[in-house]
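hey so u asked for the seq, here:
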Amino acid sequence: MTATAASATTTHTYAYSDLPALMGRMTGDEKHGPAATSTLDVLWVLYDRVLRVTPESLRDPVRDRFLLSKGHGPMAYYAVLAAKGFLPVEWLGGFGGYDSPLGHHPDRVLVPGVEIGSGSLGHGLPVGVGTALGLRAQGLSEAAVWVLIGDAELDEGSNHEAVAFAGPAGLDRLHAVVVDNSSASHARPGGIAARFEAGGWSAVTVDGRDHSALYEAFTAPHPGRPRVIVARVEPKSA
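ran it, structure tokens below
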């Protein structure tokens, strides 16, 4: 089913308050519930108020790109995509099923609106760096790249290589959102934001459940530098 066809079947207008019910439709095994719910507010604010992408503009070269690196818990992502008309709400009930396009890791070939297949920790931010470089090389300066990663992914060295490259490269159309639910194994002196700042990024830490704070952080100017927003949520064990 094409993205346009998917949006055509979704006639109801959904709000943030509808997301728990949409997520509740996904009853398959191995849901990684905490990983999903930790991202819910970030995803909603991005898709509702920030990202310049719609079901109709998925092939537009100047669209914004959203890359879910934290792909091992995609329930909230699927719920938001359904709420915004990228895929039919009816698909949610088949989550994780053998014949469902909604797998435990999102698949860009099967799910409208998904830019990358993901779930393997640590590869989303490097892909985001490459995407931002490619867009800049094509002169597509309007397109922004957003990558959502989990704090535990920062245990992977590939992310630190991406951080170290993006700052000096001046990739100011690149944005990373780190959802921090205290699940990382290795502490960083000064915290997550300080690590990015040391690499030449613009960085801020906010309450990951506060929609106004998230929106302000997402839209703040950061000329000449990539931007990271560390969104703190309740610890995974809570």
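Confidence is low (pLDDT under 50) at residues 1-10. The first strand starts at residue 65 and ends at 68.
lmk if thats what u needed
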